[in-house]
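Exercise 3.2. Students should predict the tertiary structure of the chain below and write it as structure tokens, then compare their answer with the key that follows.

Predict this chain's 3D structure.
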Amino acid sequence: MFRISSFNILSKIAKKLPPEKHILILRPCAIGDLIITLPALHALREYFPNAYIEIMGYPSYLEIVHGRFYANALSRFDQSDVSSLFRKNALLPDTLTKRFSKFDLIIAFVSDKDTIFSENLKKSGARKVLCYNPFPNNSEPVHISNHFLNFLKLLEIPYSNTSPIIYLNEEDLKAGKDFFRDNAPNAGQKTIAIHPGSGSIHKSWPFINYSSIIHWLIERLNAQIFIIKGPADTVVTKNAGNLPKKNICVIDNQPLPKLAAILQQCDLFIGNDSGITHLAAAMGISTLSIFGPTDPAVWGPRGKSVNICYRPTSCSPCSDEVRKTCFPKICLESITTENIQKEILCSLPLL
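Answer key:
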């Protein structure tokens, strides 16, 4: 079992592995955390082009990588036998050891402060097990994608991309085109996607501001607005009555590959620090991201055309605990609708 302190020998491990192998990557996370890991996963796939790679996490998010360059197969992390890995001195179930023993290499991007998970994982029967903390050390600020790429540096695995790349298949692209055909704007009309939600309401710009921006986009630019709504985005449902009645289409809880294909055809995306914002940026469209209590230098989306609106204050960035009890959130409320309007006009210079 090799942890961070033993990385001086990790490159030897990578070099000893056969060119064709079975690799299991444990990455239980939401969509944003998955996307920031993609540059590292891309390098692993390029380094082991003929490997069978299985990614274990949450399938609804992992669908974006399944059969799309990165992963040959998916599996669920939230299984009862996997939960045994978190119990001290656990007797691992046969169902787990039978599955894990077929892998030549297991890479676990799982938080494990007490090392219980990693110690159990090394008893799973896999040939090699590597664990890496998915969160960077706060004393050494580094972009989260670079944090995962640093893992590859220690393994002496080369990489060429520091921004995420998403590979859509023909079915995905057709679904996106069909959606646009059925909800197509008029010729010359700009299409702007907006996701007013986030995995945490404490990172969200006030919805009343988004509503104001939506009205302005329609009145000033006659734009077609796609509002993205996921299962946790109750703010859209609660405030639907405040939205305009024309030029609005709500994209409700679509599969991520289809949503990515839709976003790829939009002229602009606007959103908070959220997984969907990372998705939009990765698709290469012009992305305007609004940051408040989190640090964009660490958590900012990467892509071909990303603009981050951030007004640092004396108390931001802050911890999860602090932001949950912070009212009013000056870091977000100091960003005005006028600020965002100006950024939009800069992002759409042809209007």
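Discussion points: The longest helix spans residues 31-47. The chain is about 35% helix and 15% strand.
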